[in-house]
Amino acid sequence: MDTRHRGITIRGNSAQIAFTYQGVRCRELIPIPPTKTAQKELALKLQSIKYEIKTGTFDYNRHFPYSKKAKEFLKKRPDRYTIKEALINWLRHNQANLQKSTLQDYNSAIYHHLIPIFGDLAIAELTASKVKEWLSELPCSNKRKGNILTPLRQTFEELYHDEIIDKNPLTRVKNLPNKAREPEPFTQEEITRILNELTGQAKNLIQFAFYSGLRTSELIALRWQDVDFDNNRVFVRQAYVRGQLKSTKTKSGKREVTLQPQAKEALFNQKTFTKQQNETVFHDPHTNQPWRNDQPIRKRIWIPALKQANIKYRNPYQTRHTFASTLLSRGEKPLWVAQQMGHKDWSMIIKVYGRWIPQSK
User: Fold this and answer.
1) What count of other Cβ atoms lies within 10 Å of the Cβ of residue 85?
2) Which residue of 12, 70, 80, 215 lies most exposed, with the fewest beta carbons within 10 A?
3) What confidence tens digit (pLDDT) does each residue in 129-146 have?
4) Which residue blocks in 245-333 are alpha helix, DSSP H?
């Protein structure tokens, strides 16, 4: 086959064509039959490409839809680069730096919410008004809406910093205010009724929850090595989130909690079940294996106990509210309570539990 055409190199049953686009030397391999007719057609194709580049009408993706370089150039075309492609590329580049639970959240937001609504739009077509309209119809809490929006925000922030878009429409979309749930602590009489419906490991777990203030994710990650009976304290260092062991939610979350008498009693009772078996304190009584998430606790222990005790349902987090409100009601200092709860300062204590703080005379 004749190989004298400039920019064409024959390689067996394929040919490489070379051209310069946007200052970048590009080479693409094309399969062709070993005939003079095929070579002439290839020369015409290269001539057409060069003409389109010169006139500003060249579409790399149309000529070479499976080319990696085409995808790179497409990213620089906000009128052609889709939001679906941008989200997937952003996630792929950043997933190595994400916690597994965060990655699961982002995957859910991208594939179940963002791509079905915005995926087919070019990034240049997204407007603040489209996002706001979608948010207004999304049937979930404001906090959840903000979480779903996070991957889209970060994707467009990256596109803006990479100068692929001139302005970021997401800067005009503010997160909606979170409506904090009002604490509904249990009374001492309600606590007694709940615990009376429980036995063994289930009772020990819920009793410790009421009198330690730990989050459920922290409770199920507690190890015997974190328990210091001699000095009447436990150390909160880690948590199970969606089956994955990770450090506590915040730096202040890693803390030392003073054992209240009822919490200490629950731990002593629990020693019978797990002290000699495993370093994890609380186990699922059905399997005698460590818990990995809070859903089975809620379904198999918490909900049945409240029903049997004929007590209005509140979620298990209210055990934490009960702990804080009880300490404050008996006159403990808000700063100390904040430390027991794992808050960085006492502002949250004042804001959430202010009505349980006795007024000084």
Assistant:
1) 17
2) 12
3) 999 999 988 888 888 899
4) 261-274, 295-297, 303-308, 318-329
Please report the pLDDT score of residue 266 as a whole number.
97
Q: Does CATH place domain 83-172 in 1.10.3730.10?
A: no
Beta strand spans in 176-290 (E): 227-228, 233-236, 238-241, 244-247, 255-258, 283-284, 289-290
pLDDT at 65: 76
Structure confidence at residue 200 (pLDDT): 95
179: left (phi over 0), alpha (psi -120 to 50) or beta: beta
> Does the pLDDT of residue 16 top 90, yes or no?
no
CA pair distance 122, 125, nearest whole angstrom: 5
pLDDT class for 241, splitting at 50, 70, 90? confident
Q: Which residues of 181-191 are buried (b: 16+ CB within 10 A; e: fewer)?
A: eebebbeeebb
Letter string b/e over residues 213-249, b meaning 16 or more CB atoms within 10 A of that residue's CB = bbbbbbbbbbebebbeeeeeebebbbbbbbeeebebe
Looking at per-residue pLDDT, the higher value among 48 and 71 belongs to 48
- Residue 108: count of CB within 10 angstroms of its CB: 14
pLDDT at 224: 94
Look up residue 129 and give its amino acid: S
Quote the DSSP letter at residue 21. E
- CB 219, CB 229: distance < 8 Å: no
pTM for the complete prediction?
0.61
Mean pLDDT of 104-128: 92
| 3-class SS shares of the chain: helix, strand, coil, % to 5 | 50, 15, 35
Confidence of residue 68 (pLDDT cuts 50, 70, 90): confident
End-to-end distance of the chain based on CA atoms, in angstroms?
A: 102
Position 211 scores a pLDDT of 97
Rounded to whole angstroms, how far apart are CA atoms 212 and 226?
13
What are the backbone dihedrals phi and psi of residue 235, each rounded to the nearest 5 degrees, phi first? -110, 125
Architecture category of domain 189-356 in CATH: Orthogonal Bundle (1.10)
User: What is the rounded distance in angstroms from the CA atom of residue 90 to the CA atom of residue 83?
Assistant: 10
Domain ranges of the chain: 8-63, 83-172, 189-356
